[in-house]
């Protein structure tokens, strides 16, 4: 089968690999029909996540058709069209029972800090991802969800990660009616978080980024204010000035380790890799939030350390809430919102590539060319 | 204020429909049904593991399901085995893994060559995207490369007796 193949930082290709097989009674094999490249995949592509082994197939956002199931799979049958949450979760451990499906303790051998994730390095379990014609899906009774009638295929694709993550970012912000919410990052997650902030009753939503085309998209898609930090001397001071010098009630970091905007963070975090990525967005979020406010983090960072003003967290009484998205917990509500046309997640898809053009797709997304916001890979039609 | 905001944002579909005054910092952990002190669970059936799988020493053994892709091998594999002797809290865990990744890249290049395949480091596949969207920098880089090549060629030729 054709699959994306990682060869090292900034080097990927499409290549033939063996079709995956059932390895556990709760496994299913899916024929992938659509797979996204996620902004988090770029952290892998840029070589920022340790234990990313050469040959790995990335891709944790995908939908497909069930081709084969293990003998313990009861909830799926061959031919079902399913969307697959990016978390690999057993549904039985103490963390899954609490709804923390991203922290499953039965799906990742290599790290205790995170549960298994499809195609996200060996520190997330060493599973191949869905940027391929076929993919192995463990715990098929728990994660994969049959795509309800009436839900568009690409809306379903956005329900595997982008929409739940943007929604959880807003949810973790604990937004109260009338709150001012600042979202750092106008990528797919930031734009979605800004849109979802309104569902919680935000009074004002502000997005900060440095790419004008993305800010323009955010203004239209999320009906929010959007500002370019490159046009300001100091983004934190700018945000204080436009919030009565108090700061925002809620700040959301939807950028993570690839942030730009601070030379010291860029050099130590991205170039020299002396910290787990550049924490510029988180730094700004902590300093721009109101005293007693909430910082919600969904941006992905590496597993070591980052330079952030933790003293200000203490002095300002800031609450930090963070987490990889618990997709399964949020799916029922979000499917309803998509069915009712409250949310239209597929509207953020800007590019579609054949799987064989995966290197082009990664380059265009990574270099922010052609006003790319969200690229989707379409595997070769089989037979 | 809520009514005033509802009026102001009536053009935003779904404004306020998920407002939840009970959403507080420990949500959703506090909401879910786990008995106090519950630390064990009925484990799923274990996968029959057929390759070497490294696992964190912060856990007693393998989880029920594991990824068996790319088991540790060669020099990078030895480094990875060393790394997994230490907990996720130690630099002795993460730094060897980072070094192993870079060595693994070179192993990948050697692997490509031994299989008779042009390594991706030479056969970069995004020429089309660069030509369409970054033509100036592509042309500049090609010219610089050609110029550097010519200079090296001349120097080598000049030094030959």
From TrEMBL, chain A:
All copies of domain Alcohol dehydrogenase-like C-terminal, residue ranges: 188-265
A GO molecular-function descriptor: zinc ion binding
Keywords tagged on the record: Metal-binding, Oxidoreductase, Zinc
InterPro entries: ADH-like_C, ADH-like_N, ADH_Zn_CS, GroES-like_sf, NAD(P)-bd_dom_sf
Keyword Kinase recorded: no
Cofactor section: Zn(2+)
Entry superkingdom: Bacteria
PANTHER family found in the cross-reference section: DEHYDROGENASE, ZINC-CONTAINING, PUTATIVE (AFU_ORTHOLOGUE AFUA_2G02810)-RELATED, ZINC-TYPE ALCOHOL DEHYDROGENASE-LIKE
Family recorded in the similarity comment: Belongs to the zinc-containing alcohol dehydrogenase family.
Listed name of the protein: Glutathione-dependent formaldehyde dehydrogenase
Organism: Sphingobacterium haloxyli
TrEMBL record, chain B:
Keywords, in A-Z order: Membrane, Transmembrane, Transmembrane helix
Keyword Membrane: yes
Transmembrane segments: 138-156
Protein name per UniProt: Uncharacterized protein
């Amino acid at each position: 089968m054709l699959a994306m193949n990682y060869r090292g930082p900034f080097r990927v290709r499409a290549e033939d690999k063996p079709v995956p097989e059932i390895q556990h009674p709760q496994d299913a094999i899916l024929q992938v029909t659509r797979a996204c490249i996620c902004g988090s995949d770029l952290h892998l592509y840029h070589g920022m996540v340790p234990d990313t082994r050469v040959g790995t197939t990335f891709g944790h956002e995908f939908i497909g058709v069930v081709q084969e199931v293990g003998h313990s799979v009861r909830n799926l049958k061959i031919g079902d069209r399913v969307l697959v949450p990016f978390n690999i979760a057993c549904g039985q451990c103490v963390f899954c029972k609490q709804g923390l499906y991203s922290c499953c303790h039965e799906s990742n051998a290599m790290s205790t800090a995170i549960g298994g994730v499809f195609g996200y390095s060996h520190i997330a379990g060493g599973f191949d991802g869905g940027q391929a014609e076929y993919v192995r899906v463990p715990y098929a009774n728990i994660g994969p969800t049959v795509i309800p009638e009436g839900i568009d295929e690409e809306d379903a694709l956005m329900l595997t990660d982008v929409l739940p993550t943007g929604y959880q970012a807003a949810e973790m912000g604990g937004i109260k009616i009338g709150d001012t919410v600042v979202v750092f990052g106008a990528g797919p997650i930031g734009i979605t978080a800004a849109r979802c902030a309104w569902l919680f009753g935000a009074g004002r939503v502000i997005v900060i980024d440095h790419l004008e085309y993305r800010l323009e998209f955010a203004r239209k898609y999320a009906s929010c204010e959007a500002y370019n930090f490159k046009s300001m001397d100091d983004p934190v001071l700018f945000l204080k000035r436009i919030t009565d010098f108090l700061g925002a009630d809620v700040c959301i970091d939807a950028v993570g380790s690839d942030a730009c905007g601070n030379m010291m963070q860029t050099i130590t975090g991205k170039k020299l890799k002396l910290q787990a990525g550049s924490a510029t967005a988180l730094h700004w979020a902590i300093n721009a939030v109101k005293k007693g406010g909430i910082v919600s983090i969904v941006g992905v960072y590496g597993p070591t350390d980052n330079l952030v003003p933790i003293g200000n967290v203490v002095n300002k009484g800031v609450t930090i809430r963070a987490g990889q998205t618990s997709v399964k917990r949020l799916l029922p509500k979000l499917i309803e919102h998509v069915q009712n046309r409250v949310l239209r997640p597929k509207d953020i898809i800007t590019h579609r590539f054949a799987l064989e053009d995966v290197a082009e797709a990664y380059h265009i997304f990574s270099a922010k060319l052609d006003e790319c916001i969200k690229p989707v890979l379409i595997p070769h039609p089989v037979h | 204020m809520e009514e005033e905001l509802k009026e102001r944002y009536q053009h935003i579909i779904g404004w306020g429909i998920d407002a939840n005054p009970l959403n507080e910092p420990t949500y959703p952990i506090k909401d879910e049904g786990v008995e106090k002190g519950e630390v064990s669970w009925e484990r799923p059936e274990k996968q029959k593991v057929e390759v070497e799988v490294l696992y964190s020493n912060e856990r007693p053994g393998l989880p029920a399901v594991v990824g068996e892709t790319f088991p540790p091998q060669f020099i990078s594999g030895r480094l990875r085995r060393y790394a997994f002797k230490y907990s996720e809290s130690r630099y002795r865990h993460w730094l060897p893994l980072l070094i192993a990744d870079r060595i693994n890249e070179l192993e990948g290049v050697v692997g490509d060559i031994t299989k008779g395949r042009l390594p991706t480091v030479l056969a970069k596949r995004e020429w089309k995207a660069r030509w369409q969207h970054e033509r100036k920098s592509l042309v500049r880089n090609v010219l610089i490369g050609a110029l550097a090549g010519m200079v090296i060629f001349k120097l080598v030729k000049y030094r030959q007796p």
